[in-house]
């Protein structure tokens, strides 16, 4: 049974007042993670095939083709993990 | 023996690189942060108290603010913050007006890690000494990029890191004037900093004496490989010539700032003049977070920093939530600046 940890390499808080969260996917799983997310989230815009602006439930985030994503306005780690499990699994 | 010889040779080489009078003024630490903490704890806790003042600037890296904030809570001294001008340069009038007989130490970055502004630490050091204060310089952004001569600048402490000057991580240097270091107690205890430990069980006493400089401040097993690596990095930089390093970076910065004028949605922060600025360009793109900008560049294998750059007070002064920061070193080229511009123009289309 796959878990969020199977896909996520690390989670970083951004340095700055924006308090965004950067999720870095494992290199060997990034393509699968991106495919899963694109299947489930709603695509608002794509830029040069590199950046995908997405929404899912109440969350808005940007997904990057190099296997990183910036989530905005996430309340806490539990909320982020819940969101990631819905997007990835 | 061979490792010790190489370790101490590295110390001598680095001491000459910054023109220290003696190798014993060159203490190996983990980096700039540890160097400043060493001064704040060893010198600060023993020389500062209620009524005393420490003067720093608003452009400091957190590493030159937080150690003083922590020790001020322990000793009750006051920290004063000198202002910067709207373009990010130091407000010398404000700085000098805040220097008084209560000021015991002045702590200033030689070069801002956010804007690349070069501060006139020689001028500030003279005013500090005229008021009986010591002068600590955060050289993390200057020593790798330009000739720094501690005797010419007449500063009491200089802190810098290996990993910003082609050396390994986890190694750095605290330079201190011998007469100042000799009066300071050790920062940490154990290992190489010990001369003798003797316990008299009958009297229930333990007598401890410290090693000589510089080993008095090098507790525990030293980072031998790191120090030797930093020594080799210094040898390489000496071979290039620090004037050449500086000129190369200034040329790249001048070229990049000139080309950035082509961008309509990009705002460059900091001074316009190149005379007192090194190869750091902080900027923002309208409508985009600095993290978005950095991650976009990351897709093309171009690394840049985004966020506060550990200098939140300066960002608050600029009323910025964060900034993206492009920076140059000896290995960068004008072709890379052109590539940077190509990508930045793509970003502007987002």
Overview of the molecule:
The complex is a heterodimer of chains A (89) and B (350). Chain A is α+β, with helices and mostly antiparallel strands and 89 residues long. Chain A has a single domain (4-88), classed as TATA-Binding Protein. Chain A contains three helices and six strands. Chain B is α/β, with parallel strands linked by helices and 350 residues long. Chain B is built from twelve helices and 13 strands. The mean pLDDT of chain B is 95.
Quick check: average pLDDT of chain A?
90
Taking pLDDT < 50 over at least 5 consecutive residues as the criterion, the unreliable ranges of chain A are none
Strand order of the largest sheet of chain A: 1-2-6-5-4-3
Radius of gyration of chain A: 12 Å
CATH architecture of chain A: 2-Layer Sandwich
Low-confidence stretches of chain B: none
Major sheet: arrangement of strands of chain B: 1-7-6-5-4-2-3
How far the N terminus sits from the C terminus of chain B, by CA atoms, comes to 60 Å
CATH class annotation of the largest domain in chain B: Alpha Beta
Q: Quickly give the structural class of chain B.
A: alpha/beta
| Alpha-beta content class of chain A | alpha+beta
CATH level 3 topology of chain A: TATA-Binding Protein
The total of beta strands of chain B comes to 13
Radius of gyration of chain B: 21 Å
CATH architecture title of the largest domain in chain B: 3-Layer(aba) Sandwich
Largest interface: A-B, 17 and 19 residues
Oligomer: heterodimer
